[in-house]
Amino acid sequence: MQKEDPDIIQLIRNEKTRTEGFNRLVKKYQEEVYWIIRRLVINHDDADDLAQETFIKIWKNIGNFRGDSALFTWIYRIATNEALLFLRKKRLNAALSLKSLENSLSSSTHNDAFYQADETLDRFQKALLTLPDKQRLVFNMKYFNEITFADMSEITGTSEGALKASYHQAVKKIEKIITKR
Questions:
Q1: Topology agreement, domain 1-95 and domain 117-181
Q2: What would the pLDDT profile of 108-123 be if each residue is shown by its tens digit?
Q3: What is the pLDDT of residues 128-143, one digit of tens each?
Q4: 82 CB contacts (<8 Å, ≥6 apart)?
């Protein structure tokens, strides 16, 4: 558990200091939550909206946090679930195939004022978009957030072996796409 987390949890559990504790939680985790989501949904506006939804869900459910895992692990799970649910709904609502969703997300990166990339980074981003959601999630957790497979297992409820296999497959797919000319 991170250093200030017990203090934050204690503030949140006290009715008189709940708002102060939650404000500290948001301040501490808002950037990480945004980037967890952004790497999955790509679009800034969607990520921003989903980050807000994540914190609303945290506010409503913080009383259910038992402390069996680190607070960040619990928050990460909520954020990734929100992002994955959003992607599923987006596919269903728009009746998009995986390829057209990939094209939609890919084109949104170029129209996003917050997105800047050179050719290599652009190819990397496009390669990430070709991954199935679960592989992309595992790759993002390991590559960007340097989360251990043990912690990933706790967050996703998936065995470490399956996560390692997903990560390995994701890396191979990305390498193949990036090195292809």
A1: no
A2: 555 555 545 567 777 8
A3: 888 988 899 999 999 9
A4: 37, 50, 53, 54, 57
The 3-state secondary structure of 56-116 reads HHHHHHHHHCCCCCCHHHHHHHHHHHHHHHHHHHHHHHHCCCHHHHHHHHHHHHHCCCCCC
**pTM for the whole thing?**
0.75
Question: Residue 4: how many CB atoms within 10 A of its CB?
Answer: 13
Q: 117-181 architecture in CATH?
A: Orthogonal Bundle (1.10)
Angle between helices 149-156 and 133-143 (to 10 degrees): 140
What does the alpha-carbon distance between residue 11 and residue 169 come to, in Å, rounded to a whole number?
42
What is the C-alpha separation between 104 and 41, in angstroms, rounded?
11
37 and 51 Cβ atoms separated by less than 8 Å: yes
Q: Which CATH architecture has domain 1-95?
A: Orthogonal Bundle (1.10)
Which CA distances in Å does 14 have to 27, 57, 74, 112? 19, 19, 20, 41
Contact (CB, 8 A) for 138 and 107: no
Question: For the chain, which residues make up each domain, given as ranges?
Answer: 1-95, 117-181
